[in-house]
Amino acid sequence: MKNPELRFFIELRLHGKDCKMPFLGTRRVHVHFVPEDEGPKMKLSVCGFLVACAFSLFSLNAAEPANDVYIPLFDGKSLDGWEKVGKEDSVWEVKDGCICGSGQASMLVCSKGPYKNFKYRAEVKINDKGNSGLYFRTKLKSTFSDGYEAQINSSHSDPIRTGSLYNFCHVYKKLVEPDDWFTYDLVVRDDVWRGKPVTKIKITVNGDELYEYHDFAQSWKEGYFAFQQHDPGSKVAIRKAEVLPLEDKPAK
Predict the structure, then answer these.
(1) pTM (2 decimals)?
(2) Whole-angstrom Cα distance, residue 34 to residue 82?
(3) In terms of CB atoms within 10 Å, which of 51, 60, 78, 250 comes out highest?
(4) In this predicted structure, what is the pLDDT of residue 250?
């Protein structure tokens, strides 16, 4: 029970008069004290009841698991933990707290990992006519063909737009304007569907869940995260990249 907003009233009949008071809990409880000659005893009973409820609710909330905590892959200051793979005159640098890619084709690969099942979140921006990609389960020495790619493209000549899982599931509608920051959320997990092993990939853009793709070929087993610098006309910026590892699901 996360962030409970459950509220009920303990209804008391005190000396012949109704009294309602709000109280946190899980259901409506009615307590009626009718005798008017047992005031002190009644007060002790009510106090004991309220204290018991408070301790019960405290114990319940204390048992709740902590919120999911993502692991930052970018420290906002440097390219520590990231490696350029590709042409030497390709540029990856940190400016104004963002990773910025420009110049010739290359990949910027995060050396932390490998990761298999996870939630992944990135905040990204691409220029007009620009093209990039968010790669996952890729290799440390990644090329454009290694791993899964979530497309980053608002207006490039390639019609496959942001929100696409490149070569698997394509989106042709423009979901994000050029030079606008947007959020990519991915959930990637190996699972079993109708008795068949499958890699499930759920893609969300700016909080809008687009689809969950089922890759029965399980094309890429595990790997690293990376970003693509596609061509000299493309300029991509990343201000957040973070991961939440997920446990493997038990075999069914």
Answers:
(1) 0.74
(2) 72
(3) 60
(4) 67
